[in-house]
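Input structure tokens:
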């Protein structure tokens, strides 16, 4: 079993991506997939969920019964799911398909709270190989100090969840409308030399002391050398295609498929069919 967990801050484009990638996988790649809504507050997802955690617990009911605010209620819901994984397992694994999990927008779930981490561990124990797809709004590239925060959040999530992890700069189609960027886009996607970013910090709003702090923080990100981003525009099939290939590599799907095809290919090679050709052809996406 293989799947991807789509995480990120509120409004970063998680649910929209789930709809787009599901459409791409079903129509261009002909892969059997299901979408699992793991967000108890996702009252109107832009897709038809095959499994919906709201059938287990609803955030509005929790808020009302326990007099909790929206954030507290989401955390309560995630802890409830954490303690009822058997029910979720039954709902998800009975469908025998590649799984796209749409997750809530509470960042603390990914950086330090334990409930989501335990949910992910339990899913991995079902035998499912996962890749985290972590969405960040590309709007954050327009402000160096916000971009530094994003780098830290991404690094924390990577270290907290300990899974193959792909960071994505979403809504890249809007980047030109967000105002001028200090650097070319590949500076933000490759995250190589952050010292240039420090030069861009505005001394009027960022005192010298904070520039020193930012220097230490960017040094930390550089030391780990783990964070980079894929740019994504969900309406551009080429952009979805590149991300999809990266996710398939990260969670091992492509190798599982290759193994399967090797068996098919071995039997075909006896009848003269070229395995490599078959493999490459299957990785071509419909670009219309
Ligand atoms: N232009 C553009 N808009 C996008 C893109 N992806 C998402 N959006 C818009 O961004 C808004 C938020 O998208 P959602 O998919 O609901 O974001 P989310 O991360 O699921 O939000 P929460 O579930 O509330 O945390 C919606 O209005 C989307 O239409 C994109 O690639 N390009
Ligand atoms: Mg959503």
């Amino acid at each position: 079993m293989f799947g991807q967990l789509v995480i990120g801050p509120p409004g970063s484009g998680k649910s929209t991506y789930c709809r787009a990638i599901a459409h791409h996988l079903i129509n261009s790649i002909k892969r059997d997939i299901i979408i699992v809504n793991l967000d108890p507050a996702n009252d109107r997802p832009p897709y038809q969920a095959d499994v919906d955690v709201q059938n287990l617990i609803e955030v509005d009911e929790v808020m009302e019964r326990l007099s909790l605010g929206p954030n507290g209620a989401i955390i309560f819901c995630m802890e409830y799911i954490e303690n009822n994984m058997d029910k979720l397992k039954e709902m998800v694994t009975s469908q025998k398909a590649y799984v796209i999990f749409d997750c809530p927008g509470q960042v603390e779930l990914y950086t330090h709270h334990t409930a989501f981490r335990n949910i992910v561990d339990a899913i991995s124990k079902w035998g499912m190989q996962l890749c985290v797809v972590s969405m960040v709004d590309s709007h954050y590239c327009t402000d160096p100090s916000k971009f530094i925060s994003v780098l830290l959040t991404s690094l924390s999530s990577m270290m907290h969840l300990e899974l193959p992890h792909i960071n994505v700069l979403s809504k890249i189609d809007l980047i030109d409308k967000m105002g001028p960027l200090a650097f070319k886009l590949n500076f933000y996607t490759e995250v190589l030399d952050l010292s240039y970013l420090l030069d861009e910090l505005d001394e009027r709003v960022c005192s010298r002391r904070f520039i020193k702090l930012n220097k230490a923080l960017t040094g930390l990100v550089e030391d780990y050398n783990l964070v980079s981003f894929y740019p994504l525009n969900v309406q551009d099939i080429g952009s979805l295609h590149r991300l999809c290939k990266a996710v398939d590599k990260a969670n091992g799907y492509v190798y599982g498929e290759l193994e399967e095809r090797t068996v098919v290919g071995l039997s075909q090679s006896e009848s003269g069919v070229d395995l490599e050709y078959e493999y490459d052809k299957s990785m071509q996406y419909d670009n219309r």
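The domain at 2-251 is CATH 3.40.50.300 (Rossmann fold). The chain has a mean pLDDT of 86.
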